Protein backbone atom coordinates (compact mmCIF):
# COMPACT_ATOMS: atom_id res chain seq x y z
CA UNK A 1 0.00 0.00 0.00
CA UNK A 2 1.20 3.52 -0.86
CA UNK A 3 0.20 6.79 0.76
CA UNK A 4 1.19 10.33 -0.22
CA UNK A 5 2.24 12.83 2.43
CA UNK A 6 1.87 16.60 2.29
CA UNK A 7 4.42 18.35 4.53
CA UNK A 8 2.72 21.34 6.17
CA UNK A 9 5.31 22.43 8.75
CA UNK A 10 6.37 25.53 6.82
CA UNK A 11 2.77 26.80 6.68
CA UNK A 12 0.42 25.30 9.26
CA UNK A 13 3.32 24.31 11.46
CA UNK A 14 4.74 27.80 11.82
CA UNK A 15 1.72 30.07 11.37
CA UNK A 16 0.79 30.10 15.06
CA UNK A 17 4.31 30.60 16.43
CA UNK A 18 4.45 33.82 18.49
CA UNK A 19 8.02 34.71 17.49
CA UNK A 20 8.64 35.39 13.80
CA UNK A 21 10.72 32.71 12.12
CA UNK A 22 13.36 34.02 9.72
CA UNK A 23 12.66 33.56 6.02
CA UNK A 24 15.99 31.77 5.62
CA UNK A 25 14.98 29.23 8.27
CA UNK A 26 11.66 28.61 6.54
CA UNK A 27 13.47 27.97 3.28
CA UNK A 28 15.93 25.66 5.03
CA UNK A 29 13.04 23.74 6.59
CA UNK A 30 11.59 23.21 3.12
CA UNK A 31 14.98 22.20 1.72
CA UNK A 32 15.47 19.64 4.50
CA UNK A 33 11.98 18.25 3.88
CA UNK A 34 12.75 17.78 0.19
CA UNK A 35 16.07 16.12 1.04
CA UNK A 36 14.14 13.66 3.22
CA UNK A 37 11.98 12.64 0.25
CA UNK A 38 8.87 14.75 0.73
CA UNK A 39 7.50 15.85 -2.63
CA UNK A 40 4.45 17.93 -1.77
CA UNK A 41 5.13 20.92 0.45
CA UNK A 42 2.47 23.33 1.70
CA UNK A 43 4.96 26.16 1.91
CA UNK A 44 3.07 29.43 2.39
CA UNK A 45 -0.25 31.13 3.01
CA UNK A 46 -1.36 34.15 0.99
CA UNK A 47 -3.32 35.73 3.80
CA UNK A 48 -3.26 39.38 4.83
CA UNK A 49 -0.04 39.88 6.81
CA UNK A 50 -1.87 41.67 9.61
CA UNK A 51 -4.05 38.61 10.12
CA UNK A 52 -1.19 36.11 10.22
CA UNK A 53 2.13 37.97 10.55
CA UNK A 54 4.13 34.73 10.42
CA UNK A 55 3.09 34.32 6.77
CA UNK A 56 3.91 37.89 5.69
CA UNK A 57 7.03 36.74 3.81
CA UNK A 58 5.21 34.29 1.52
CA UNK A 59 6.66 35.81 -1.67
CA UNK A 60 10.19 35.82 -0.25
CA UNK A 61 9.89 32.18 0.78
CA UNK A 62 8.67 31.15 -2.66
CA UNK A 63 11.47 33.15 -4.30
CA UNK A 64 14.04 31.22 -2.27
CA UNK A 65 12.86 27.62 -2.40
CA UNK A 66 14.65 25.18 -4.71
CA UNK A 67 12.82 24.25 -7.89
CA UNK A 68 13.31 20.50 -7.94
CA UNK A 69 11.71 18.23 -10.57
CA UNK A 70 8.85 16.33 -8.99
CA UNK A 71 8.44 18.70 -6.04
CA UNK A 72 5.14 20.58 -5.85
CA UNK A 73 4.69 23.73 -3.75
CA UNK A 74 1.26 24.65 -2.44
CA UNK A 75 -0.06 27.92 -1.08
CA UNK A 76 -3.14 28.48 1.03
CA UNK A 77 -5.52 30.91 -0.71
CA UNK A 78 -8.61 32.60 0.72
CA UNK A 79 -9.66 35.14 -1.90
CA UNK A 80 -8.97 36.63 -5.33
CA UNK A 81 -6.11 38.78 -4.04
CA UNK A 82 -4.54 35.69 -2.50
CA UNK A 83 -4.79 33.86 -5.81
CA UNK A 84 -3.18 36.80 -7.60
CA UNK A 85 -0.26 36.60 -5.18
CA UNK A 86 -0.04 32.81 -5.49
CA UNK A 87 0.13 32.97 -9.27
CA UNK A 88 2.78 35.70 -9.18
CA UNK A 89 4.83 33.72 -6.64
CA UNK A 90 4.85 30.60 -8.80
CA UNK A 91 3.14 27.99 -6.66
CA UNK A 92 2.23 24.68 -8.27
CA UNK A 93 -1.02 24.14 -6.40
CA UNK A 94 -3.47 25.99 -4.23
CA UNK A 95 -5.42 24.91 -1.17
CA UNK A 96 -8.70 26.75 -0.63
CA UNK A 97 -10.42 26.38 2.74
CA UNK A 98 -14.19 26.21 3.18
CA UNK A 99 -15.17 26.13 6.86
CA UNK A 100 -18.00 23.82 7.88
CA UNK A 101 -19.68 26.28 10.28
CA UNK A 102 -20.72 29.89 9.81
CA UNK A 103 -19.30 31.16 13.11
CA UNK A 104 -15.82 29.80 12.53
CA UNK A 105 -15.97 30.77 8.86
CA UNK A 106 -16.72 34.39 9.75
CA UNK A 107 -13.85 34.50 12.27
CA UNK A 108 -11.39 32.71 10.02
CA UNK A 109 -12.30 34.13 6.61
CA UNK A 110 -14.85 36.88 7.11
CA UNK A 111 -17.66 35.09 5.29
CA UNK A 112 -20.38 32.50 5.80
CA UNK A 113 -19.95 28.89 4.76
CA UNK A 114 -22.19 29.44 1.72
CA UNK A 115 -20.10 32.46 0.72
CA UNK A 116 -16.99 30.34 1.22
CA UNK A 117 -18.33 27.77 -1.25
CA UNK A 118 -18.90 30.50 -3.83
CA UNK A 119 -15.38 31.86 -3.26
CA UNK A 120 -13.99 28.36 -3.77
CA UNK A 121 -15.87 27.93 -7.04
CA UNK A 122 -14.55 31.22 -8.42
CA UNK A 123 -10.99 30.52 -7.29
CA UNK A 124 -11.10 26.97 -8.64
CA UNK A 125 -12.18 28.20 -12.06
CA UNK A 126 -9.35 30.74 -12.26
CA UNK A 127 -6.77 28.31 -10.90
CA UNK A 128 -7.77 25.63 -13.38
CA UNK A 129 -7.41 28.09 -16.25
CA UNK A 130 -3.91 28.87 -14.97
CA UNK A 131 -2.91 25.21 -14.75
CA UNK A 132 -2.70 24.98 -10.96
CA UNK A 133 -3.58 21.87 -9.01
CA UNK A 134 -6.60 22.52 -6.79
CA UNK A 135 -7.37 21.19 -3.33
CA UNK A 136 -10.42 22.23 -1.36
CA UNK A 137 -10.22 21.69 2.39
CA UNK A 138 -13.31 21.48 4.57
CA UNK A 139 -12.13 22.90 7.88
CA UNK A 140 -13.73 22.05 11.24
CA UNK A 141 -15.12 18.91 9.61
CA UNK A 142 -14.99 17.02 12.91
CA UNK A 143 -16.07 19.78 15.28
CA UNK A 144 -16.15 23.55 15.71
CA UNK A 145 -14.63 25.55 18.59
CA UNK A 146 -17.64 27.89 18.57
CA UNK A 147 -20.65 25.84 17.47
CA UNK A 148 -19.63 22.48 18.89
CA UNK A 149 -20.59 19.27 17.12
CA UNK A 150 -20.65 19.27 13.32
CA UNK A 151 -22.88 16.54 11.93
CA UNK A 152 -21.47 14.17 9.30
CA UNK A 153 -24.49 14.90 7.14
CA UNK A 154 -23.65 18.61 7.10
CA UNK A 155 -20.04 17.87 6.14
CA UNK A 156 -21.05 15.46 3.39
CA UNK A 157 -23.57 17.96 2.03
CA UNK A 158 -20.67 20.41 1.84
CA UNK A 159 -18.57 17.76 0.07
CA UNK A 160 -21.25 17.51 -2.64
CA UNK A 161 -21.29 21.29 -3.04
CA UNK A 162 -17.54 21.79 -3.29
CA UNK A 163 -17.14 18.77 -5.58
CA UNK A 164 -19.19 20.55 -8.24
CA UNK A 165 -16.17 22.80 -8.93
CA UNK A 166 -14.08 19.72 -9.81
CA UNK A 167 -11.27 19.82 -7.24
CA UNK A 168 -8.35 17.52 -7.84
CA UNK A 169 -8.43 16.62 -4.15
CA UNK A 170 -10.90 16.99 -1.28
CA UNK A 171 -9.38 17.37 2.17
CA UNK A 172 -11.17 16.95 5.48
CA UNK A 173 -9.53 18.85 8.33
CA UNK A 174 -9.84 18.14 12.04
CA UNK A 175 -8.87 21.73 12.76
CA UNK A 176 -9.21 21.54 16.53
CA UNK A 177 -8.27 17.89 17.10
CA UNK A 178 -11.60 16.49 18.28
CA UNK A 179 -12.03 13.67 15.76
CA UNK A 180 -12.19 9.97 16.56
CA UNK A 181 -11.73 6.92 14.31
CA UNK A 182 -15.45 6.18 14.01
CA UNK A 183 -16.11 9.65 12.62
CA UNK A 184 -13.11 9.32 10.31
CA UNK A 185 -14.56 6.12 8.83
CA UNK A 186 -17.93 7.78 8.29
CA UNK A 187 -16.58 10.90 6.62
CA UNK A 188 -14.00 9.17 4.43
CA UNK A 189 -16.56 6.62 3.22
CA UNK A 190 -19.12 9.37 2.60
CA UNK A 191 -16.64 11.55 0.72
CA UNK A 192 -15.51 8.65 -1.48
CA UNK A 193 -19.16 7.90 -2.27
CA UNK A 194 -19.95 11.55 -3.03
CA UNK A 195 -16.89 12.12 -5.24
CA UNK A 196 -15.57 8.69 -6.23
CA UNK A 197 -13.09 10.00 -8.80
CA UNK A 198 -11.50 12.52 -6.41
CA UNK A 199 -8.67 11.58 -4.03
CA UNK A 200 -9.45 12.14 -0.36
CA UNK A 201 -6.92 13.85 1.90
CA UNK A 202 -7.01 14.16 5.69
CA UNK A 203 -5.53 16.80 7.99
CA UNK A 204 -5.31 15.92 11.68
CA UNK A 205 -4.25 17.73 14.82
CA UNK A 206 -3.20 15.73 17.86
CA UNK A 207 -4.78 18.10 20.36
CA UNK A 208 -6.49 15.30 22.30
CA UNK A 209 -4.04 12.53 21.39
CA UNK A 210 -6.28 10.93 18.76
CA UNK A 211 -4.46 12.26 15.67
CA UNK A 212 -2.40 9.17 14.88
CA UNK A 213 -5.27 6.74 15.43
CA UNK A 214 -7.33 8.93 13.11
CA UNK A 215 -4.59 8.98 10.47
CA UNK A 216 -4.23 5.19 10.45
CA UNK A 217 -8.01 4.82 10.28
CA UNK A 218 -8.10 7.23 7.33
CA UNK A 219 -5.56 5.13 5.44
CA UNK A 220 -7.49 1.93 6.17
CA UNK A 221 -10.73 3.64 5.07
CA UNK A 222 -9.41 4.62 1.64
CA UNK A 223 -7.84 8.05 2.01
CA UNK A 224 -4.82 8.40 -0.27
CA UNK A 225 -3.18 11.57 1.12
CA UNK A 226 -2.29 12.67 4.65
CA UNK A 227 -1.02 16.01 5.93
CA UNK A 228 1.68 16.03 8.59
CA UNK A 229 4.06 18.55 10.13
CA UNK A 230 7.70 17.85 10.97
CA UNK A 231 8.17 18.07 14.71
CA UNK A 232 4.41 18.02 15.29
CA UNK A 233 4.30 21.81 15.40
CA UNK A 234 1.28 23.83 14.37
CA UNK A 235 -2.04 25.35 15.24
CA UNK A 236 -4.70 27.74 14.00
CA UNK A 237 -4.57 31.40 15.08
CA UNK A 238 -8.38 31.58 14.97
CA UNK A 239 -9.21 28.34 16.81
CA UNK A 240 -8.69 28.32 20.59
CA UNK A 241 -6.48 25.47 21.87
CA UNK A 242 -5.90 24.04 18.37
CA UNK A 243 -2.46 22.66 19.10
CA UNK A 244 0.01 20.84 16.93
CA UNK A 245 -0.46 18.77 13.83
CA UNK A 246 0.43 15.11 13.83
CA UNK A 247 4.21 14.84 13.49
CA UNK A 248 5.55 13.65 10.16
CA UNK A 249 8.27 11.54 11.77
CA UNK A 250 5.91 9.85 14.25
CA UNK A 251 3.39 9.13 11.49
CA UNK A 252 6.17 7.70 9.33
CA UNK A 253 7.16 5.33 12.10
CA UNK A 254 3.64 3.90 12.29
CA UNK A 255 3.24 3.66 8.52
CA UNK A 256 6.65 2.09 8.06
CA UNK A 257 5.92 -0.60 10.67
CA UNK A 258 2.63 -1.30 8.86
CA UNK A 259 4.39 -1.76 5.53
CA UNK A 260 2.88 1.38 4.01
CA UNK A 261 5.17 3.00 1.42
CA UNK A 262 5.69 6.77 1.46
CA UNK A 263 9.12 7.27 -0.13
CA UNK A 264 10.14 9.50 2.80
CA UNK A 265 13.20 8.90 5.00
CA UNK A 266 12.02 8.76 8.59
CA UNK A 267 15.48 9.36 10.07
CA UNK A 268 15.99 12.50 8.02
CA UNK A 269 12.63 13.93 9.10
CA UNK A 270 13.44 13.19 12.74
CA UNK A 271 16.74 15.03 12.32
CA UNK A 272 14.84 18.00 10.91
CA UNK A 273 12.45 17.90 13.86
CA UNK A 274 15.39 18.22 16.24
CA UNK A 275 16.81 21.03 14.11
CA UNK A 276 13.45 22.81 14.14
CA UNK A 277 13.35 22.65 17.94
CA UNK A 278 16.58 24.62 17.92
CA UNK A 279 15.15 27.20 15.53
CA UNK A 280 12.07 27.67 17.70
CA UNK A 281 14.02 27.59 20.95
CA UNK A 282 11.78 24.97 22.56
CA UNK A 283 11.08 21.23 22.35
CA UNK A 284 8.77 20.03 19.61
CA UNK A 285 5.94 17.57 20.33
CA UNK A 286 7.28 14.79 18.07
CA UNK A 287 8.52 11.72 19.94
CA UNK A 288 10.57 9.80 17.39
CA UNK A 289 13.46 12.24 17.60
CA UNK A 290 13.75 11.38 21.30
CA UNK A 291 12.89 7.69 21.36
CA UNK A 292 14.48 6.65 18.06
CA UNK A 293 13.24 4.02 15.61
CA UNK A 294 12.67 0.33 16.32
CA UNK A 295 14.48 -1.89 15.63
CA UNK A 296 17.47 0.35 16.20
CA UNK A 297 19.74 0.78 13.14
CA UNK A 298 22.71 -1.53 13.04
CA UNK A 299 25.89 0.06 14.39
From TrEMBL:
<dbReference type="InterPro" id="IPR043594">
    <property type="entry name" value="HMGL"/>
</dbReference>
<dbReference type="GO" id="GO:0046872">
    <property type="term" value="F:metal ion binding"/>
</dbReference>
<keyword id="KW-0456">Lyase</keyword>
<dbReference type="GO" id="GO:0046951">
    <property type="term" value="P:ketone body biosynthetic process"/>
</dbReference>
<dbReference type="Pfam" id="PF00682">
    <property type="entry name" value="HMGL-like"/>
</dbReference>
<dbReference type="InterPro" id="IPR013785">
    <property type="entry name" value="Aldolase_TIM"/>
</dbReference>
<dbReference type="GO" id="GO:0004419">
    <property type="term" value="F:hydroxymethylglutaryl-CoA lyase activity"/>
</dbReference>
<dbReference type="GO" id="GO:0006552">
    <property type="term" value="P:L-leucine catabolic process"/>
</dbReference>
<comment type="similarity">
    <text>Belongs to the HMG-CoA lyase family.</text>
</comment>
<feature type="domain" description="Pyruvate carboxyltransferase">
    <location>
        <begin position="3"/>
        <end position="270"/>
    </location>
</feature>
<keyword id="KW-0479">Metal-binding</keyword>
<dbReference type="InterPro" id="IPR000891">
    <property type="entry name" value="PYR_CT"/>
</dbReference>
<protein>
    <submittedName>
        <fullName>Hydroxymethylglutaryl-CoA lyase</fullName>
    </submittedName>
</protein>
